């Protein structure tokens, strides 16, 4: 069994790949802030992407996100558009980029921490 293919290390790597992809999408949005008619985009949240990738193998496992919980509500966004039809709000994109960068730093820290635990267990941290 390869511990880097399952568990927290694999999840941290998946999270970092998702965050890298999100940064590319957000930078594309910022780059097109002056393009008439451009509509900004974003990735599906990481939790939903992971949940969609999971296969329910037992009836007692959790169901789809938001399906059974009455507190769950769909997010409603009203797109802000400028006179030329561009929907990019630079302040919103800057907040998303900052959130993504913070989450990336956290994922990198967790990944390093888990690898350090493996090195310690193998006696290589002397």
What's this entry about, in short?
This protein is mainly alpha-helical.
Structure, explained:
Its main location: other. This is Flagellar basal body rod protein FlgB. Pfam families: Flg_bb_rod. InterPro entries: Flag_bb_rod_N (IPR001444). The protein is an all-alpha fold and 126 residues long. The chain has three helices and no strands. Helix 1 packs antiparallel against helix 3. The longest helix has 32 residues. It is elongated, with a radius of gyration of 19 Å.
Mean pLDDT: 80
Give the SSE order as H and E letters.
HHH
The rough form would be described as elongated
Q: Largest sheet at a glance?
A: none
Alpha-carbon distance between the two ends: 25 Å
What's the tally of helices? 3
Present the secondary structure layout.
Layout: H1 7-31, H2 46-53, H3 90-121
Helix pairs in contact: 1-3
Biased composition (Basic and acidic residues): 70-83
Keywords: Cell projection, Cilium, Flagellum
InterPro entries: Flag_bb_rod_N
